[in-house]
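Sanity check

After download, print the first record. It should look like this:
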Amino acid sequence: MRFKSMLGLLALVPVLSHAQSSVTLYGMLDTGIQYLNHANSAGNSQISMINAGFWPSRFGLRGQEDIGGGTTVLFQLENGFDSTSGALVSSGTLFNRTALVGATNNSLGTLTAGRQYSVQYDKTLNYDPTSLASYSILSIGPIPLTTLRLNNSVKYLSPTYAGLNVEAMYGFGQQLAGNTEAGRYIGASLEYVLGPFATRFVYEESRGTVATGIDQSGLADRRYSLAARWSVPNSYIVSAGVTRVGGDLQLTPRGTVYWATGGVWLSPDINLDLTAGRYDYQGKGQHSQMLTTSGRYFLSKTTYLYANVGYMANQGNADLGIYNYATTQPGANQLGMSVGINKRF
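Expected structure tokens:
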């Protein structure tokens, strides 16, 4: 009888373990066809098949384990790849999008460490109806590519008390002996949410890196950002924001970025959005202005067709492209259009 009881207990072990922890494989495939004018230095137009017509293709693993006392240990590993060729987006880097481990507690908040998104990204994502897609706020430059994600970083997100939450992040940068400032990042936000209304303030400071023969660790890029939104889930969202770019590092030129967005669900299957933005460059007498619109038609909960149209008008030597983090000829205007399919799993 005692032997049978032991067998019974052993049989329960996998069940109990499964109930306390989980690992999920997930991903996204996005492939489209895009037209761009002024696509190269000669001003030629281009029609091409592209990865990430709406959102970047990716696959990843996320997991969590309940260790008791209201605390859950978590991890996430995520890789970006080109759906048109199967190649890694970052050659030689397996988890270029996210590689983090941490813990969360309902009363104490969430602490994570590794390669992860910046505070500015976190606190802009839910203010944009496209969730920062390829034709979006990102195209006008409020979040530099250098600080979209940070290596060697620690991030804390508080629980929400009386509608308020705080997020803070420190990136150790290059971790060079004798130089604690090279590549260092500091970011913090204060957000207030009340029903459909939300507003937040973000401050970020990023130090320069040390490259071969060039030490920019004494230079800093500083950003102050304010945004607000009014949203009703599965109905509509309107939002606006402003980012002041200062300092002497200039990950993007000193100046001020303004943006406004709106999105609406015409039906459970059809979503439309519109985004306008402007980047005024300080002391240069030039600017970039952007207008984009996108539409999505959902074939299912995990699959949709999309169409994007965007126009970027550059004045002076400004060279922002309509596709996020791309450039065009200095002073040239760019029209972009794309159609494609996005599949999540």
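If your output differs, re-run the checksum step. Summary of this record's structure: The helical segments are 2-20, 119-125.
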